Amino acid sequence: xxxxxxxxxxxxxxxxxxxxxxxxxxxxxxxxxxxxxxxxxxxxxxxxxxxxxxxxxxxxxxxxxxxxxxxxxxxxxxxxxxxxxxxxxxxxxxxxxxxxxxxxxxxxxxxxxxxxxxxxxxxxxxxxxxxxxxxxxxxxxxxxxxxxxxxxxxxxxxxxxxxxxxxxxxxxxxxxxxxxxxxxxxxxxxxxxxxxxxxxxxxxxxxxxxxxxxxxxxxxxxxxxxxxxxxxxxxxxxxxxxxxxxxxxxxxxxxxxxxxxxxxxxxxxxxxxxxxxxxxxxxxxxxxxxxxxxxxxxxxxxxxxxxxxxx
Length: 311
Fold this sequence. Notes:
InterPro entries: CAAX_protease, Rce1/LyrA-like_dom. This is CAAX prenyl protease 2/Lysostaphin resistance protein A-like domain-containing protein. The chain is an all-alpha fold. Helices cover about 75% and strands about 0% of the residues. The chain is globular.
């Protein structure tokens, strides 16, 4: 603490830790009664609002921070939207490799959830699995938590934000690909200074997966959605297919880097190199006095490891 004010990185990571603790404790008392009253889809939406949006509201009531500045409610350009859609689609094979690696040490929870939603209307599926996470998760992760890392350079801030995003899912199967996506989301939000950029990519990424699974299930009448789609999962039958997908993933990473570079160059032309340098470098002097690897982050890592060990 400094001058009675909680430092940004400490505050952001503390908020992330609070979200996890709240989810672990309140889930024992709130979710079971809701599950008896409502269907799984409704409970999943309520879960996002209870464990993400409610703490978000409390956070702003308590801190009185500027809502627009913290959540980065700034515009994205039409030309950037197409690039963001491409990034979301290119992220599929990368996330797939991550999901495949995770399958060796953790059961895929997402496939089980999607299987439980088998048979619900398409737009309801998209609302539950794409729209709601794209709003709720981004407002907390790339809004409040990423804002806490504003003094740190873009690489460090994005990596830590990605790790927190991976851990906050509280599953082993989602850790790798959620971390990867979180890094991409955070990096682009820092460049564009707009939460809408990560919302778009998140929405398209999840929506594409759910759409492929849903319509594949319709074409193959006796197969459920879960057998067709996991949130970036792989159904492979040979090592050759994995190697091929790995090569595709490497190519996708390269193209994503080029696409992000194009967004950066456009923003430099429109907003100036000084503005972009500030977003990339942060404030090194302030960052030294406010480490991003701090006590809340360490506790969060340890708590995550304990949860994974117990599960």
